[in-house]
Amino acid sequence: SHFERFERHLNAPGDPAARDAFVSGVKNEMPHETFLELAAWYWAAGRPGDARRVLSLSPPSAEVKYWSAYLAAREQDRAAESLLREADAASPTLVFPLRAESVDVFEWAAGLSSSWKPKYYLALARWGLNDLAGARELMVRLGDEPRYAPFYAARAEAIAAASRAQARTDLERAAAIDPGGWRYGK
Fold first, then answer.
1. Residue 81's Cα: distance from chain center in Å?
2. How far apart are CA 36 and CA 67, in angstroms?
3. Under a CB-based contact definition with an 8 Å cutoff, are residues 54 and 6 in contact?
4. Any long-range contacts for 104-111 (C-beta under 8 Å, 24+ apart)?
5. pTM for this predicted structure
6. How far, in Å, CA of 181 to CA of 136, rounded?
7. What tens digit of pLDDT does each residue of 130-179 get?
8. How far apart are CA 67 and CA 173, in angstroms?
């Protein structure tokens, strides 16, 4: 149990074996998702410090960095601003926000950041929660700012029912940004 191994680490903070047992026990294709799931649980349980601790052990990802910044801000930690900048600079590759708890994180980040990324992630999170209209609105408002092909592919899917012509334009833009990406032509 990831939870049990992390609790063992919490109860033995100076024991590197407990930390290593927890971290090495997470063996999946996207390990940062396991760390995020635990952090979301600790946050919901009113234990933001433990949520931050679990994320400090996570492999890096943009979503982990946004969560870390959000939690730091909630604890009045001055590191929140620099963590938000790190999150904005992180690659959007393989970032798929799926938790309802992430909506608050990305709403907070989108309100403070000048980057398009937290707005895009917020759109994905809302879409995942069956709020296609909200996701579509966020993606449309981003205009042509992102230089990230998957953004345009996602937006094409989100707006296809409303505007097939705009969806085609978005797919063409995705293909132009990533000419080697076979998915955009499909």
1. 17
2. 8
3. yes
4. 104/70, 105/66, 105/67, 105/70, 106/66, 108/70, 108/73, 109/66, 109/69, 109/70, 109/84
5. 0.93
6. 23
7. 999 999 999 999 999 999 999 999 999 999 878 889 999 999 999 999 99
8. 30
